[in-house]
Structures are given as C-alpha cells and as structure tokens.
Design brief:
Blueprint (H helix, E strand, L loop, with lengths): L11 E6 L6 H10 L3 E5 L5 H18 L4 E5 L5 E2 L7 E4 L4 E5 L9 E3 L14 E4 L4 E8 L3 E8 L1 E4 L3 E3 L12 H12 L4 E4 L5 H11 L4 E6 L2 H5 L1 H7 L2 E5 H7 L5 H14 L4 E4 L14 H12 L4 E4 L1 H4 L4 H17 L3 H5 L10 H15 L4 E5 L4 H8 L6 E5 L2 H6 L6 E5 L6 H14 L8 E7 L8 E8 L4 H4 L3
Parallel strand pairs: 1-2, 1-17, 2-3, 3-13, 6-7, 13-14, 14-15, 15-16, 16-17, 18-19, 18-21, 19-20
Antiparallel strand pairs: 4-12, 5-11, 6-10, 8-9, 8-12, 9-10, 21-22
Helix pairs in contact: 1-11, 9-11, 13-14
C-alpha cells in the first residue's frame, strides 16, 4: 500500500456518489483527487445499490489505510403536485390555477396537491413555488378542498414537480415513512452521519435522534426560512449543520442567501459544530470540464469564511467530469489556504472559549501554534469532542486526531483541519507522548526537530476530562525507538 500524504488543506471536500461515481475505480480516483468524505443521497436509488456503494467505500478505506466518512442524506418531506393528463401543462402568466384534492389527472387550470395538511394552513397572499421557483403562484382563496391561485410567473408544469411553501410552517414531520426506512438502513450499514432534510424546528431533530438510538452523528440541513428563525436551537440540537442553498434559494430571494450563508456558518462555528456549504458550488462542471469564475469565487469565499466542508452534488453524482470537479475544488481550497491573508480572514470571527478547562486548553493550542513553530496538534480523544474544540479555534497547523474508536475517527472526517488515525488506547502519560510522536512521524506531521502539541485528558479513557497540554520535540530515531 503506497503511503498517503496528509491533505495539503484544512477544509474538507464532501463528494456525492451517484451513477457517475459509484464504480470502485472512480471512487478511488475521487479520493485520491481530494474527496475526504462521501455523501449517499437517499432521494435516489435502491437500498441494494446504496449498500454496494457503502461496501465499496469501506473496502477503499481499508485499501487506503485512512478513515473515510460517509453521510447518508435523507430525502425529507418533499411536497409535490400530482400528475397531468398529458404529463405536463402550461400555466398562463397572470392566469388562475387551482390546486385541489381531486386525484383526477390535471390540466392547464388545475392539478391535485396530494398533501391534505397544506389545505388547512395556507392563507390569502401566501406564495407557492413550483419546480424550484420557476412557477410562482399567489394564493387568492384557500378552502379545505382547494387553493385558488394567481400565476405571478406561469410556464410549463409537469408531473410530480416539487412545491415550496416559504410563507408558512408546514405541519408535517421532517421524517417521512421512506425516511424512517432509509434511516434504519443507513444505521444498519454503519454510515457515520445522517443528513436531515427540510428541518423546520428543533423537534424534528429530536425525533431523528430517537430513531438513531445514539448511533452516528446528525447533520441538520438548513433549507427552510422557518429553520432560520430557530437556528440557535437547531444548532444546539445537532452535531453539524449544512447550508443547503438549493431549496433555501428557492424559498428566499436570491440576494438574501449569501448573508444568510455567512450567518449560518458563523453561528455553527461559534457553537463548535462542523458546517457544510452545499449546492451548485461548481454546477457548470456537470457538463463542462472547467468551472465559471463566479463558481471558483463561491468556493473560495466559503473557504475564507471558515466552513469545515465544501460539498459537490450533481457534479460528482451525475456529471461528466466528477474527478475534475474534485481536483478543481481541491486546488481552489489549497490556493485560498496559502493566501497570506487567509489566517486573519478565517479568524475574523471571534469564537471565545467556553469557561471550561478543555476549551481553555484548546484555545491555548491555537496561540502556542501562532507563537512557536509547531508542526501539528496531536489530540487524544475517545468521543471526538476535544478535536472539535481545537478545530473550532482554526489553528494554523493540522490537528492529528488519535482515537481507539473507528466510529469517532470517521465522524471527525467532517471537521476542519482534522486528520484522524485509529490506534490502540493509551494507559499512561509516557505512552501518550511516545505514541503521539510515533504517529506524527508515521503520518507525515513533522520530522526530526519538529515540535508537537499533545492534548489529552487524565485519567485516560475518561470522557470530558481534557486537562493536559504538553509540547514535545521529535527526534530522528523516534520511529525505530518505538517500534515503527
């Protein structure tokens, strides 16, 4: 097995797997090009296909000798219109159009809306956006059986197109029956993160947590204006956050999304929760081998803002240039992180430590690395919480995470600057220092004369006991002395 060098960047790349990329050879190419984690989109494909994909990623993990993170993204309660007589119809601009509960195929005047819960909540003046906002309807009159609308923007509407309701909290749970089945499957398959779609309120996360039974980490996807209103509570209830700009950009005016993206990234960072920026990052690369300049700037700005992860969707799932999309995203991120102004930009956000020993020590790691030439911060952790505290400070050096838990090693794969290694547990201070030095040398985080910061908790193996910070110097014979 060829030795893999550590990534030359701290932001992580999450690549979506689909027909264009699920072949084991292509997965290998994406990993080597820079993908740190893989997203399995439960909206498409059968369980048997997803099981093959997950097995291929786990086989690659063994081959590469490095933990690889898998996020299973649930579809969520996507609202859709029914079907049309001819498969589609044309809604006239400024004309009237009715959504009703009649399952008869629709035409240019009406269609079934098979979501009875919507008929009781919509009010005059509220908007309905169809097919990602391409058709915009305004409610004139709503009754228990039909919703009469005026078409502010008409156009072609076809079977099962999605419906967004930006002006009302929709009284449906974030988990459908399909999501429950998919969630059970994902946990059974041993994925590391669950993405919960169309979160509107913190209670949605509580239900998902109950079904997860303590397994895996939960990522709340922020794609509804309703979720933004309760953002602090949702961040508190989640393990990570995704800025899902697709649906967010449908339900809000386009110009509202960039400042909101920055707010969500900042709030998640302050809470020490990993944050993913997703959707349309390199959209033109679905068909083109090169991105637009605007897309390059978009990715770069997310990296400058200190996002933990930047995500590729259709670019790697169904695009014609999946490997090139990862390669270019990797190049953009490396270029940004080499910028002499990057450290100041990424630290522009003040993330004051909580009043705990662990937070104070994590903050100290950052200031020591700024003051003394340090090659890496070595974190010993069982749960990953210490690594999260250190990453929150955005230190100027990589974070080598040593953990006896393969689950923890995979979970921290969405954490800024973290490079996880699964290793046997430690039992003493001396063993900790020896192992930290050995692993740093083995994995390319220093050489003879390099200094490391070691962060751990004593007594060892006790969750939440981070209380020890030690600066050590590597010597040339460390690998030989400690058995390689």
């Amino acid at each position: 097995m060829a030795k893999l060098e550590p990534r030359a960047r701290k932001v992580k790349i999450l690549a979506t797997v689909g027909p264009a990329s699920r072949d084991p050879d292509m997965l290998r190419k994406l990993f080597r090009a820079g993908a740190d984690a893989f997203r399995v989109n439960m909206s498409h494909g059968e369980h048997a296909v997803h099981a093959e994909t997950i097995a291929a990623i786990r086989a690659m993990e063994k081959e590469m000798g490095r933990p690889i993170t898998i996020l299973a993204d649930l579809q969520g309660p996507k609202l859709r219109v029914g079907q049309f007589k001819d498969g589609k119809a044309v809604i006239r601009h400024s004309g009237h159009f009715t959504l009703d509960r009649d399952p008869t195929p629709g035409d240019e005047t009406r269609v079934c809306l098979p979501h009875p819960e919507l008929f009781g909540i919509l009010e005059k003046g509220q908007r309905l956006l169809i097919n990602d906002g391409k058709i915009r309807l305004r409610v004139i009159e709503a009754s228990p059986d039909k919703i009469l609308c005026s078409a502010e923007v008409g156009g072609v509407i076809s079977d099962r197109k999605g419906v967004n309701v930006p002006d009302a909290e929709v009284p449906i749970p974030a988990l459908t029956e399909k999501d429950r089945r998919d969630l059970g499957f994902a946990i059974e398959q041993g994925v590391d993160w669950i993405g919960l779609s169309f979160v509107q309120r913190p209670e949605d996360l509580a239900e998902a947590r109950r079904l997860m039974g303590g397994y895996g980490a939960l990522c709340a996807k922020i794609e509804k204006p309703m979720a933004v209103r309760r953002l602090a509570e949702i961040i508190e209830m989640s393990d990570g956050i995704m800025v899902a700009r697709g649906d967010l950009g449908v339900e809000l005016n386009p110009e509202e999304v960039p400042p909101l993206q920055k707010k969500i990234v900042n709030d998640a960072r302050k809470a020490g929760k990993p944050v993913i920026v997703a959707t349309q990052m390199l959209e033109s690369m679905i068909e083109s081998p090169a991105p637009t300049r605007a897309e390059v700037s978009d990715v770069a700005n997310a990296v400058y803002d200190g996002a933990d992860v930047v995500m590729l969707s259709a670019e790697t799932a169904a695009g014609e240039w999946p490997e090139e999309a990862v390669t270019i995203m990797d190049r953009i991120a490396q270029q940004v992180e080499r910028d002499e102004g990057y450290k100041a930009r990424v630290r522009f956000l003040d993330t004051p430590p909580d009043a705990t020993t662990a937070d104070a020590l994590a903050h100290s790691c950052m200031t020591i690395a700024d003051t003394v030439p340090i090659s890496a911060i070595v974190v010993f952790t069982g749960s990953g919480s210490t690594a999260r505290r250190v990453a929150r400070e955005r230190p100027s050096v990589p974070v080598l995470v040593l953990t006896p838990s393969s689950k923890t090693a995979r979970r921290v794969g969405l954490l800024w600057g973290a490079h996880a290694v699964t290793t046997k547990d430690i039992g003493s201070f001396e063993e900790m220092i020896a192992k930290g030095k050995r692993m740093a040398l083995r994995h390319g985080f220093g050489q003879a004369g390099s200094k490391l910061i070691a962060l751990a908790g004593v007594p060892f193996g006790t969750p939440g006991s981070t209380n020890l910070l030690h600066v050590v110097t590597l010597s040339g014979n460390e690998l030989d002395r400690h058995g390689g």
